[in-house]
Amino acid sequence: MGEESLRLRKLLEHWIEHNDDHVARFWEAAEEAGKFGLKETSSNIRLAAEKGNEVSKHLRKAINSM
């Protein structure tokens, strides 16, 4: 793997870690909103978390295709 490819791999790994941290916080916030009775808000945050999981999945696929 060349130096540029290695740099790209490290960048992708960083994005995955960063995104996964956000997704974890989204799940927490969705649960918190649900406890406050904010059902629609909770639902929308959960949808964002699910989309965030999809982002990480595609970034992992990008790494695996290198």
Structural features:
66 residues, mainly alpha, 89% helix, 0% strand
Give a quick account of the main beta sheet: strands, pairing sense, barrel closure: none
Regarding quaternary structure, what we see is single chain
Mean pLDDT: 97
Count of individual beta strands: 0
Poorly predicted sequence stretches spanning 5 or more consecutive residues: none
N- to C-terminal separation?
Answer: 9 Å
Give the topology string: H per helix, E per strand. HH
- The helicity comes to over 70%
Strand content: under 5%
Structural class determined from secondary elements: mainly alpha
Shape: elongated
- Tally of individual helices: 2
Write down the Rg.
15 Å
Describe this structure in words.
This protein is mainly alpha-helical and 66 residues long. The longest helix has 33 residues. It is elongated. The chain starts with a helix and ends with a helix. The relative contact order is 0.17. The model has no long low-confidence stretch (mean pLDDT 97).
In brief:
89% of the residues lie in helices and 0% in strands. The protein has two helices and no strands.
